[in-house]
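Lab manual, section 2.4: Encoding a predicted structure.

Procedure: take the sequence of the chain (320 residues), apply the prediction step described in section 2.3, and record the output as structure tokens. A sample record is shown.
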Amino acid sequence: MNFVNKVIGPELDIFEKKFADAVRSNTPLLDRIMKYIIKRKGKQLRPMFVFLSAKMGGEINESTYRAAALVELLHTATLVHDDVVDESMERRGFFSINAIWKNKIAVLVGDYLLSKGLLLSTVNEDFVHLQILSEAVKQMSEGELLQIEKSRKLNLDEATYFEIIKNKTASLLSSACAVGVYSTSKDEIITQHFKSFGEKVGIAFQIKDDLFDYGMEDIGKPTGNDIQEKKLTLPLIYTLNKVDKATRRRIIFIIKNENKNRQSVKYVIDEVVKAGGIKYAQEKMTEYRDEALSILLKYDPSPVRNALEELVRYTTDRKY
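Recorded output:
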């Protein structure tokens, strides 16, 4: 992503400082946890989408920096809460907040991050930003609950899978693109275009994440992890609809009862590969990526558009 960094590198450097200021607390324990979070932040994909989308609409301004901070605050809050829900002890190869400071503090830290986002927007009267991102948080909660419900019953179909990932993952990336371009353009039509663009990128991004579960890349996430957590992802849903009844029953039995057994999980992975589940998911991922690019390519060529296209392609070509 060298070209992306050339186009928005200075803005990302400024954002790092502004985000650190946004999460600072006078409470020593909370400030210590915030510094821990900042040091272990991920690839910054969402802020990148905010800034590049913003540059498609005009000149980056203080409202853009606040939009990027709001996106990152809400995203980080949901990750902290997700680790509590999933009882996860790691996040990006490091100990999670709940692993070090336990669940009670982790929940309160997530609440703190959410409140900082709300205050950042209301104090500066960024009400459109807040409206767009609040809708995303609602969708993320709905998607998570729908996934939990369907995972218990193991009756997830493809349409429901796409509903879940549209809400759980794509809604935040969609909102990041929308608030970014709105911060510079104040144009509701362009904002809707970029909202749709971000949603399609987000769906492609999540399918790529699901595919990692069937690969051997070192991605900080064990192969077969989704199966162990009884998550029905696209390759597995496709496979369950393609295999014979006996194989289907065996796969479902493993997911319900033997999801911690390595050999059993390997059997499921092998069946998914054999049934063409990987190939099908890759095709769907490419389809959504290309739909996103078709929206983007309606705009005039520019270094910013080229950087945004590179970032879109990175979401599906990445190795982790």
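Check your result against the sample. Strands lie at 90-91, 94-95.
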